[in-house]
Amino acid sequence: MPKDIIVDGVYFTPLVAYYLAAFAAFLICRWLIVRTNLERAFWHPELAETGLFMVILAAVARIF
User: FRET pair for 58, CA 20 to 30 Å: which of 1, 7, 19, 50?
Assistant: First the structure.
């Protein structure tokens, strides 16, 4: 079981670190999608981005 993260006496759940790692990976993936003009393939790009972030977050949480 992961331990809590302590920052200046404030306890954070390990999920905060997962969110930060997933967000960094998401930004890289989003940059690649926009750069290759692949977002035009999605009917609702914002919904696709939300789904992509959730998949990345689940993968990061599963790995760690």
Answer: 7
Residues in contact with 14: Cβ distance below 8 Å, sequence separation at least 6, in sequence order: 2, 3, 4, 5, 64
- The label of the residue with tokens 């997933």 reads 22
- Cβ–Cβ under 8 Å, residues 4 and 39: no
- List pLDDT tens digits, range 20-48: 999 999 999 999 999 999 999 999 999 99
| Token output for 3 | 């331990």
| Stated pTM of the model | 0.84
